[in-house]
Every structure is written in structure tokens, then in C-alpha cells.
Design a protein that fits this description.
Distance between the termini: 56 Å
Shape: globular
Protein name: Non-homologous end-joining DNA ligase
Pfam family, one: LigD_Prim-Pol
InterPro entries: LigD_pol_dom (IPR014145), MtLigD_Pol-like (IPR033649), NHEJ_LigD (IPR052171)
GO molecular function: DNA ligase (ATP) activity
Order of helices and strands: EEEEHEEEEHEEHEEHEEEEHHE
Largest sheet: 7 strands, mixed
Keywords: Ligase
Oligomer: single chain
Number of strands: 17
Helix content: 25-40%
Length: 293
């Protein structure tokens, strides 16, 4: 039986703490749980009130990976859930609202993925997101070039953008929006992706077609669809090493000349938080959220 730990008055089973999840880094499950416990203060606001999809990898990134969208069997009754709309009918999903819920979910060994809307108002998107995905030999360096163009283009519409590494090989741009459905935000994002391709034809592609992507950055606007989710800020990814989807400054984006500059592992996050705080915190300021033109 897994040992029980009390977290904010809740009994949480934390199991197999010595299990090595990332052999290339010697990073254990216990270290993963410690990471989530110590970054909860900045991670939880990005999860709270958002239905969470879990990309689980209980045997590490080299084992089986599978998405869990519905409430998993065995979920404690104190974990908050919400009914959410689906094309095939309503379903229930987990809301990670507090430290106890976070540690319970982290014990499943999962990436955290969230929608661009909250459970109390699924009809209105409050986030706009671009997922910049480089096709080799392009890297995150080229993603940074595209991100800078998108930042300026969004600013022309009065929209303030923020950015983070994907935790894989690309970059995410995020902005706070209001007053629009996910469909409307998707249409706007697609229009900007098409515009970016016209402005930077040797660098950008807006279509997912694999044959078009080598050496270019795919500007994935489709993550704004109501049914889709994106890796949450500060989630650890199921990669060869425990890389984290980490907020970065625009100065860092402008100065990126090597892909290695934008690889942040779990132990790197605490020093960055001491230096910068949560660079995505402005997303929680409603007054900064912008109506689409």
C-alpha cells in the first residue's frame, strides 16, 4: 500500500518515490513530486478553474503515454470536478484547484494540459495561444524570430503577448482575451498565421501538412479550438529529460541564438522564479484582457 501524506488536511497517496522516471537525467518520481510541490504557488493559478487533460507517462517518457480527459477511476471524492461540454455529450473532468489536488494528480505522473476557457464559462475563451513548432532543421531559434513578428502584429491590435517554451522543441505565445468564443479566437489566430506566412514565406507555414514544414515554423493556430488543450505553464514534459514549459522574457527571445538556451529542466525553474517571478502573471489581470478587433 502506498504511503499516505497529509497535504492541507487531505490524505494523499504518494507512491514509488525512488522510481527513476528520466534515466538520462537520473530524475526520480520523488524529485518530480518535489518540483510540483515547490512550484505550486505559480502553477496552480494557471490550472485553477480549467478542466485538465492528463498526458500520463507512469513508467517514464520511454513507456506508454496516454491521455486521460475524463475523471480517472479512483479519483478521491474531495478532488473538484466539473461537467464540460463535448461534441458527443457532457463529460466530467478534473479541476486542479489546490495543492492536495495537484499532488494527487502529480502522483499519477502526468503532463498538465488545459483549455483556453474556464469551467464556469466554457462558451467564452479567455486565452489566445499560438504553438510555434519548428520543422527540422529549424529550431526554437527560428520560433523566436516568428514570435517577435507575432508580438508586434498582436500589439497593433492592442493585444499584449507573453511567451514560454513548450518544454519540447518549440515556443508558445499567449494573450488574455475577452468577449469572444473559441471559434472566433480560432478564426482570428488563423488569419494572423496566414498573414505571418505571407510576411515571412521562407520561415512560416500555417498548415499542418508535414511536407510543407521542413526548415520552417508551423504556426499552430488550431490550439484555440474549444475542444483542444495546450501544455500548461510549468508542467514537466514527457521528454528524454525533465524539461519544463517555462515562461521567458522578450529580451531572452530576442537574444536566442542557440536552441540549448531555451531548454529549462525542473531544477532550473526555482532560480528563474526568484529572478523573475511568474512572467505570465499579467494574464490574470482582467484589465489587460483585450477584445478582438
Amino acid at each position: 500500500m502506498a504511503p499516505m501524506t497529509e497535504v492541507e488536511g487531505r490524505r494523499v497517496a504518494l507512491s514509488n518515490l525512488d522510481k527513476v522516471l528520466y534515466p538520462a537525467a537520473g530524475f526520480t518520481k520523488g524529485e518530480l513530486l518535489h518540483y510540483y510541490a515547490t512550484t505550486a504557488g505559480v502553477l496552480l493559478p494557471h490550472l485553477r478553474d480549467r478542466p485538465v487533460s492528463f498526458l500520463r507517462y507512469p513508467d517514464g517518457p520511454d513507456g506508454q503515454l496516454f491521455f486521460t480527459k475524463n475523471v480517472p477511476p479512483g479519483t478521491p471524492d474531495w478532488v473538484t470536478t466539473a461537467q464540460v461540454p463535448r461534441s458527443q455529450g457532457p463529460a466530467r473532468m478534473v479541476l486542479v484547484q489546490d495543492l492536495a489536488s495537484l499532488m494527487w494528480a502529480a502522483n499519477l505522473v502526468t503532463e498538465f494540459h488545459t483549455h483556453q476557457w474556464t469551467a464556469d464559462d466554457p462558451g467564452e475563451a479567455d486565452r489566445l495561444v499560438f504553438d510555434l513548432d519548428p520543422g527540422p532543421p529549424a529550431t526554437v531559434v527560428q520560433c523566436c524570430e516568428v514570435a517577435l513578428w507575432l508580438r508586434e502584429r498582436l500589439a497593433a491590435d492592442g493585444i499584449e503577448a507573453y511567451t514560454k517554451t513548450s518544454g519540447a522543441k518549440g515556443l508558445h505565445l499567449l494573450a488574455g482575451v475577452r468577449g469572444s468564443s473559441s471559434e472566433r479566437v480560432s478564426d482570428y489566430a488563423k488569419a494572423l498565421a496566414v498573414e505571418a506566412e505571407r510576411a515571412l514565406p521562407k520561415l512560416v507555414v500555417h498548415r499542418m501538412t508535414r511536407s510543407l514544414r521542413p526548415g520552417k515554423v508551423f504556426v499552430d493556430w488550431s490550439q484555440n479550438a474549444a475542444r483542444k488543450t495546450t501544455a500548461a505553464p510549468y508542467t514537466v514534459r514527457a521528454r528524454e529529460v525533465p524539461a519544463v514549459s517555462t515562461p521567458v522574457t522578450w529580451d531572452e527571445v530576442a537574444g536566442c541564438s542557440r536552441a540549448e538556451q531555451f531548454v529549462f529542466l525542473a531544477p532550473d525553474v526555482a532560480p528563474r522564479l526568484r529572478d523573475h517571478g511568474d512572467l505570465l502573471a499579467p494574464l490574470f489581470e482582467r484589465r489587460r484582457a483585450t477584445a478582438l478587433p
